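Risk register update: the risk of archive-format incompatibility is retired. Evidence:
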Amino acid sequence: MALSTEQRLDQAGMRRIILPMQSDNPALQHVNAWLADENILFDTGKDDTGTRRVWDELDCTQSLTGVYCTHAHADHVGLAHHFEQAHRLPIYVSDAEMDIARTAFALTPSDAALLRQGFLREMGAHRSGASPSRPLGGRATIPTAHHRPLLEGARLGVGGREWLVRLGGGHSVAPALFLDEKHGLLITGDQILPEMTPYVGLAIDAPDADPLGRMLDFLRSWADVDSAIIALPGHGAPFQNVGDRITGHLASYERRLNRAWQAADVPITGAGLLSALFRVNSGQQVLDIHYAMAAALLNHLVATGRMQKWRDEDGAFQYQRV
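Archived output:
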């Protein structure tokens, strides 16, 4: 008789730790950390009172020997600095991810505000009738004093097992996935999720980047993954048939790209596309991430030759399909 997912995880010495997180998305109210053999931790949760309380109540922190972070978003690496300082633990994360965290932390509030204002102006958010936007809020993640870099293809012999490191891209700049081939486990972070499509947004300090192109390339490279592998995601429950979820993610991004392309039959700003992309009314308040997601879609359409882009006299970018 085949073992259930829960039985396989228990047999493999993996424990899911559900950590709280406040979010404007009602479907995104927790983040996972994964504990291997009670001494190796993958991701830490946010640096807030609720998350610290969970860790204080657990009995595993004293037995930890290392912390491995999938990526440097606040809900995954937020408490890494605490584990480093309070428990003297080594922190493993890719160089590019930690570079992003340190750059964001070093920005003064005024510099961050200027970057944000410049991005929103280029999207046309300052114009009459455009959707006003608000940031998600929260402070920048406190970076660790030191970190040990995770490299593509590295094999980590930790916790009595071997993990193969694979670096992705799209959701963040260089997120790490961890594959335990012996037990058929894949820690995916936010690159592959069981229900929602992973967030891909343009970073406001990298206006010409194509993060969606990187995400699509990553997903296609994993499309043939063994269906028996259990994915351990950053949000949601463990799941199998990873290839099916990848197919779903690819289809979701393609639908969004098609909506953007169809809406740009005449010159239009990023702000003008929001109603077609996210079903919001003209002038309805949105979050900065809506503009960031729209910009990622538009940049990919430009990069693949399906959209043209130019700056108008008011400083906003105009887009029109080719």
